[in-house]
């Protein structure tokens, strides 16, 4: 039997075979009954095999044969499984040379397509918003920082989300894990943005066991939700990686595999706080740095959980018609145990270490398996790609920034993407030496921005922490930068140019050597900036305090103007004249639906 801990329990027994497990042609009742019994025995035996070696697992699946997946292979719409890890560093996977063991990720990637020119955003909210809308941050107003729990802010409600588009073509949509796209209004919640069900957290981080989060002193609350309500009844103090895996197993066990499924599994791991069940530390006692050791335990736990998710897909008849996509949401944070070596920088920066991510696609539906894709791919590309795979449509009047890259991944064709706007943040202007003059009168280089066009990458402003952090930096008991390759930004420096294809580690700045290319990329930045919408970054709202909401983080904004709207029944009871009633109704109708000073979705 599989060990407990982060992996979750073995999948529960499958649904009744009469429902959908063993459909077939009309047979004699005796033969059909015997067939059902055989199916049940096969599934029961298979559910015991979580902890077996690969050879035994393969034998069990072979024994189950077509009884496991008799009908899913003919479905035209594939099951879409998107797994998002949190803060996993570029080096922190076995096939990138890490000392952390990730056998599941290594195997799935080796049998699928590894994405080795794959980009996300440097922090949580931006990556998640771009995945779910297919739009750059500048086109949703979320180009600055993250959505904080006390802010009256969320993913704009006028953006059609990926689950909403998939529901249009018959998909069941489920989200498990971290949301982090705002919740100040009920309309911002996951179940109002296209998901049939939601089980997870609304904030960016929290305790893995208690699910409590303090944003600041006196601003603390509970953060685990079942759809639109606090999940008190579903909380048994289980480590979140295990808890989310168990929920996925339950979803798969109860869903008909002949019906298309979209599952968005956004694990909390390996984001801080650094917590993991004790048994996962056993293989990492040699790692002296406590943060790195805890991080390694968390990642091993996550790897084992993904193994059980994959096994559940096979057990319940989904795997043969599934597309599994794995991605980190941003680079690792070295001070919290993550490693992006040999890339430069870390989470929260626009250096490669902050935005180049671990990613792969695993699926029996891939035409070219066991390959490496070095074509340019960005997290916005999943939106049109998955909608296309689902046989859905994107409205012609909707401008998105992603590309359908399925043929690039599955068949090895060239990517339709030739550039990426990493971001333009007009609020973050901390480059004291930045100026219009430094940007040749084309761009103010005090503004933090970054863009990639073919082989070239341009950064302006202050890109963030710029060290290279090699593995030996984690050989100390505490945080120590003695081994880091540190760079002191030159006086007056506010613009950098790199040939990323030739220099993926950003060691040779070519901005002085190729001013013509610099100007070309600055003009491209300026063109993008003309399409930007205003930044949405409102101040803290004291009404967000969980103390005012039963100790729970959750929607707090109420449309107070509705209270002033007169009731028609009251008007009739008071027998007001029609003229007065009409005036009052017009007055109520002309009022804003949003509280003064608070943004409306």
Percent of sequence in beta strands: 5-15%
Question: What would you call the structural class?
Answer: alpha/beta
**Unreliable segments (pLDDT under 50, ≥5 consecutive)?**
1-5, 14-74, 561-601
Mean pLDDT: 85
Name of the top-level CATH class of the domain at 79-417: Alpha Beta
Instruction: Based on Cα principal axes, name the global outline.
Output: globular
Largest beta-sheet details: 10 strands, mixed
Please work out how many helical segments DSSP would assign: 14
Region (Disordered): 533-601
Family: Belongs to the sulfatase family.
Domain Sulfatase N-terminal: 78-390
Keywords: Calcium, Glycoprotein, Hydrolase, Metal-binding
Structure report:
This protein has 601 residues and is an alpha/beta fold. The chain has a domain at 79-417: Alkaline Phosphatase, subunit A. The protein is 25% helix and 14% strand. It contains 14 helices and 18 strands. The strands form four sheets. The chain has a ten-stranded mixed β-sheet. It has a four-stranded antiparallel β-sheet with strand order 15-16-17-18, covered by helices on one side. A two-stranded parallel sheet has the order 3-14. Helix 2 (29-47) runs antiparallel to helix 3. The radius of gyration is 26 Å and the shape is globular.
